[in-house]
Amino acid sequence: MDILHTQLANxxxxxxxxxxxPIDWKLYVQAFSWSVTLFESYLLLRQYPxxxxxxxxxxxxGHFSPDVFKKSQNYGRDxxxxxxVSGLVKQCLDSSMLQFGFxxxxxxxxxxxxxLLGFGPEYEILQSIGFVxxxxxxxxxxxxxxxxxxxxxxxxxxxxxxxxxxxxVADLFKGWALAFVLGAxxxxxxxxxxxxxxxxxxxxxxxxxxxxxxxxxxxxxxxxQPMFNKLSPLxxxxxxxRVESLASRxxxxxxxxxxxxxxxxSSHSNAYxxxxxxxxxxxxxxxxxxxxxxxxxxxxLAHELGHWFYLHPTKMMAVSQLHIFTIxxxxxxxxxxxxxxxxxxxxxxxxxxxxTIVAFLLFQMILTPLEAVVSICMNAISRHFEYEADxxxxxxxxxxxxxxxxxMGDRLGRALITLHVKNLSTVWVDxxxxxxxxxxxxxxxxxxxxEAFQAEREKKKL
Length: 462
Prior knowledge:
This protein is mainly α and 462 residues long. Helices cover 70% and strands 5% of the residues.
């Protein structure tokens, strides 16, 4: 532990200028955030002309009828327009709040609210919680019209929206309530660790973050998700028998097999698993069951179990923890930096002893361009994992010595095509746009990969 703290101290010495030099951090953040937004807009403009194509890629020509392909192109075009406009609107709002001292005002407003309740400035954690929720509510209200448009105009126009206005409002208030019920204790514990551990907070905070994530693995499906969707045991039948048999053969620790009413809100479909290492749960959207045959749904779940077999969630969590560790290792230099807060319009009295939550929020803003790069890297890792999971499904016949699995790759390919057709997913994708935005390979890439995996398997038999 002493070696770790020594290395962290060396990093802080390299960043000592942050606490002394009068850098115009607001200008940097404005420039960084606008650069990322404009780059994302550029990617949309690269992608947009592809929605004018009149035919799908040759590999998909036999699977998309002219009418379905036209609908897919129109849906993609409308989503791209909305993403471009909403991205610029959100950036303008964020930039205005930054430029006109909204963050400093919010900290002061939280302090005044606590004063009315009889609490002074020494209650920093309480003021920090108030500060975060003032920011959260006041910044989310201006973007509500965009959410309404996306749900009731865009998704409605293309036949996907199943959300009623009443359900939309109920979800909104449930989300706000959950943000407070879960967010306030989390934030209090997060900030308490800073106060308790001092500048040696990094390993303790890492342990807390990992523990919180493990707790949420249990709490989300059992407490949170049932507030929004109904999970019912999958009805007996061919699909249940196939999934249970597959899980048993792979020694997947399946505890519950659920069907979720995804159609309550949307026609889009999916399937996933969650849980602790010794107790897993599989959830299948009712829309997927309606849109695909049981053997195709089994193939989708074979792909998902490939993620489990290769420990992809654990590996991704490890990468995420490394990312968090890097952020926390750099943060102490910004935690004790009055010039940082002064550049964002905070009063001298506040900047002299920077509140932890304020310094952390501003530090996150400074990391904006780095986070964009990290996002690209995480997508690249995720796409590699998707190929591995596809290969796993193709190799089940050999792995399990099961003749009934020999066509698993073909079934998975059919299932992927069905999902793309029913969801009107985009099939023409610019490579740079995909690298930045997509955590999965494109449909064409995955079908080519499945063909290669199956050809490789057949070659090994010779």
